[in-house]
Amino acid sequence: MSVAAGPQEVRIVTRRYHEFPEDSWTLERVEADGGYEAARSAVRDMTPDEVLDTVKDSGLRGRGGAGFPTGVKWSFVPKDLFPKYIVVNHDEGEPGTFKDRELGERDPHQLIEGIIIAAWANQANRAFIYCRGEMALGARRMDTAIRDAYRKGYLGKGIFGSGFDLDVTLHRGAGAYICGEESALLDSLEGFRGQPRLKPPFPAVKGLYGQPTIINNTETLSTLPHIIRHGVEWFRRWGTEKSPGTKMISTSGHVVRPANYEVPLGTTLAELLELAGGMRDGGRVKAIIPGGASAPLLTSTEYRLDFESLQEAGTMLGSGAVVFMDESTCMVRNALVTNEFFEHESCGKCTPCREGTWWASKVLERIEHGEGRKEDMELLLDIANGIDGRAFCPLGDAASWALRSNVELFRDEFEQHVIDGRCPFEDEHLSFTGPRAAVPGPGDSGIAAQPHAGVDADLEGPDPREAGR
Ligand SMILES: Cc1cc2nc3c(=O)[nH]c(=O)nc-3n(C[C@H](O)[C@H](O)[C@H](O)COP(=O)(O)O)c2cc1C
Ligand code: SF4
In a mutational test of the pocket of ligand 1, which residue from 181, 198, 395, 397 has the highest number of ligand atoms less than 8 Å from its CB? Predict the structure, then answer.
């Protein structure tokens, strides 16, 4: 018998689709695999408060970005106000993150089961899935899964033969990053332009249509059936005291095998890198984005992937998207491309974010194109300080953190651009974020064209991304 060496994944929310890649999204497969039993036993055998206490005791923290304890959030919902709503945040706009898309495409019934558990605990009779518009395959599979669940009496009137009703509606957004922010999401769902609302009141008290609303991320809800089925102690076997359980980490950049890896929270970046096959072409790690584009950079793989360790390191786990960059990466270009994302996605509601991100792009652009000035680094830090803590919502803060960390950690490289009057990486054409000149044609986005995957993909058969794993 051979014993696998090195770090291993612990597959909980990703188990079914790895074990049954041909049909993990079908009701037949899910039922044969014990699906919906946790939801059935929650609704039939547990009181809403028992479910809430179990989730609270599990220590489960939101997987959407902020890491807020799920059970604590649920306990803010006023008990005597009806109707209440559950809203699934399936927007997944954070650059580098591709885990919710995979869960929606490959195990939509697991998500529906999680929704039922959350709805029962919070006594909500109506749930909405807010799905990023571009996720065509996932939307089709979630739609089919909802219909199948209604057909079997898992959704609709008197679910599982109880007196509890639950309706689920799939809503497709138009693909704006800000619509992942919970209050902007609610505005968008109500049919308004997606812009953040002033908080408090928080959605748990006053959310969709002014009613108590629980907004949870897809991965958070997909974890619930396992906690209900196996219990708190089982769940706490993995992770740390403050960050229990496992987390899907979308791993990309200059690694051999970019993919989602489900690992216990507290796994080191070095272990994750090993799982991903190491750096491509024997490269060395230069910079790491540990939690999506909003997270300040790291330069070492010694850190642990959990909420508290990364906070201590001055960054964050965020949505769990790790991008490893090697030494061919131009950090000015990295800062520019990241900032351009925030500039483009700024909703325009407040001045520091709307103007600051636009201005920072102009300065970064001139440095990258060899026209930088020696005072530009201080100017960029000044712009970052002008946004941080002054923006209406966390998008502006995130833009300033990413900008600041690029300038502070790689100041020498920024200065080199100014001294040389050119980008020192220009001839390499290897940079992760890519030389803009590599994409021909006027008015191009500067981002190389991506293969058109997903939209027209075959609904049946194994997922081609499984190959080689
Ligand atoms: C600009 C911005 C974008 C966000 N995008 C997402 C997203 O795409 N998906 C998500 O689950 N949470 C996103 N969030 C976090 C949500 O506001 C919210 O905290 C989360 O959906 C709560 O779910 P959880 O407690 O299960 O993590 C975003 C936050 C901000 C500020
Ligand atoms: S910080 Fe940016 S995204 Fe947030 S409200 Fe202000 S302009 Fe809109």
Answer: 181
**177 token code pair:** 């990053």
Task: Using alpha carbons, list the distances in angstroms from residue 160 to 37, 111, 120, 267.
Answer: 10, 17, 12, 39
Does position 450 have pLDDT exceeding 80, yes or no? no
Amino acid at 17: Y
Return d(Cα 451, Cα 453) in angstroms, integer. 6
Of the chain, the end-to-end C-alpha distance in Å amounts to 21
Q: Which of 197, 343, 347, 359 to mutate to test the pocket of ligand 2 (most atoms within 8 A of CB)?
A: 347
Ligand 2 centroid to residue 345 C-alpha, Å:
9
Please list every protein residue whose CB sits less than 6 Å from any atom of ligand 1: 62-66, 68, 89, 91-94, 177-178, 180-182, 215-217, 220, 393-395
For residue 175, what pLDDT band results from cuts at 50, 70 and 90?
confident
Number of the ligand closest to the Cα of 181: 1
Q: Mean per-residue pLDDT for 58-71?
A: 97
CA-nearest residue for atom 4, ligand 2, is 393
Residue of the CA atom closest to atom 1 of ligand 2: 396
**466, pLDDT greater than 90:** no
Question: 291-317: per-residue pLDDT in tens?
Answer: 999 899 999 999 999 999 999 999 999
Taking the CA of residue 221 as reference, the ligand 1 atom at the shortest distance is: 26
Residue 192 Cα distances to 173, 184, 284, 319, angstroms: 12, 9, 47, 26
What would the pLDDT profile of 377-395 be if each residue is shown by its tens digit? 999 999 999 999 999 999 9
- Domains of the chain, with CATH numbers? 15-236 (3.40.50.11540), 246-326 (3.10.20.600), 331-438 (1.20.1440.230)
For 102-118, b/e burial (b = at least 16 CB within 10 A) is bbbbbbbbbbbbbbbbb
Q: Which two tokens stand for residue 80?
A: 């005597």
pTM for the full predicted model: 0.91
